[in-house]
Specification:
By secondary structure, the protein is mainly alpha-helical. The protein contains 2 helices and no strands. The protein has one domain (3-37).
């Protein structure tokens, strides 16, 4: 599954637009990356 697949699935299951879902997915990935870089678990 890639990001586009995830965005499409979440948008289909919610009342959110693909644009909104994409923004949430991007923010989630950025937060995870930042935590890993900082050495957090």
């Amino acid at each position: 599954m890639n990001k586009a697949d995830l965005v499409n699935l979440v948008a289909a299951r919610t009342e959110l637009t693909k644009t909104d879902v994409s923004a949430v997915v991007d923010a989630t990935i950025e937060t995870i990356i930042d935590s890993v870089v900082e050495g957090k678990k």
